[in-house]
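User: I'm curious whether this sequence folds into something compact or stays loose and floppy. Could you predict its structure so I can see for myself?
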Amino acid sequence: MVFSKFIKEITILSPIMLALSLVTGLFYYNFIKREYRLLLVYIGICLISDIISRIVAVIYGNNLILIVIFSFFELLFFSIYYQLAFFKRKIWVYTLITTIALIYIAWEIVDLWNVPPSEFQSYSRVISGFFIIAIAINYLFEKIEEKQKQSSLIKLNYAFIIFYSLHLIFFLPINFLINVPSSIKFYFWSANLLLIVTFYVYLGREIWRNGLTQKRLHSGL
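Assistant: Here's the prediction. I'll summarize afterward.
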């Protein structure tokens, strides 16, 4: 099918944008704010996961388990990231919830390791995304109560809420999208790809803007 081949080809945009964002962040590393430095770890995780998933798909013809593995590291990153860059204090309830969720995801990795694609049904991606949305909304309410003006952190927080809220729509019916014998699923995956690439472009753009601004201020321009 021509459309499915086209979608498969343009998936290369994802690692390209991640690589560009990572290079940009490393170039401006000494100038960008702490939250963007930490964000480079997330971008690195996404890039490595993308590359490994492509290799696994070529070798084994099935890389669905990588979705679960990525969810583990994604949840681990954001639980630490928010406490370091956003809340800047230890919130024990998040630590407890994260620990329970990570244990479940680890169990799911073992349970789904040899499951055929037709029977694959993972809840880890949903759990990870839901937790990120919950903690992001909690941070937003906290800043609203403090009547804090718009900042780079708040804008970044909005981006996480929007991205993961939309992303959940695609992963809730993942088993259906894998097995449905219809071209409809390719439209879903193409929309998901567009969402992901747009998100990566936004992150790269924000890192670049922050680095450029901080560099100018540092240079006295």
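Summary: Residues 132 and 138 are 10 Å apart (CA to CA). The longest helix spans residues 184-219.
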